[in-house]
Amino acid sequence: EEGAAGRRGEREPSEEGPAERGPGAAFHMFVLMEDLLDKLKLLSYEEEALRRHNMRPLSRHYFALPTNPGEQFFMFCTLAAWLISKAGHPFEQPQEYDDPNAVISNVLLELRSF
After folding, report:
1. CA 92, chain centre distance (Å)
2. Residue 95's closest CA among 86, 106, 84?
3. Cβ distance 5 to 11 under 8 Å?
4. What's the predicted TM-score (pTM) here?
5. Distance CA 103, CA 114 (A)
6. What does each of the 114 residues of the chain score in pLDDT, given as a tens digit?
């Protein structure tokens, strides 16, 4: 059975674009990235994850803007592997030239096992 919004032809809130959600919606991803960075700093990601791999710290908007998708994907995988290991599940650090689909499948498989 469809909800009231579906019967009237209206879109669900999750389907709305930035214009339909208000003027600040386009900047929500920047706020989320700043929150993520604060949480990573609380977990000492710079000392524990970045120094080990000789990587630079993230900027406040690193994942909010698509600047270098390959580099951003590798950073995401590095952080995901580090967080999974930090949570007590041994996880092999992905390499930069590993198959992206295989890496994501492994990350998702490990997260589902939590």
Report:
1. 18
2. 106
3. yes
4. 0.73
5. 17
6. 444 444 455 545 555 555 567 778 888 889 999 999 999 999 999 998 888 888 899 999 899 888 999 999 999 999 999 999 999 999 988 888 899 999 999 999 999 998
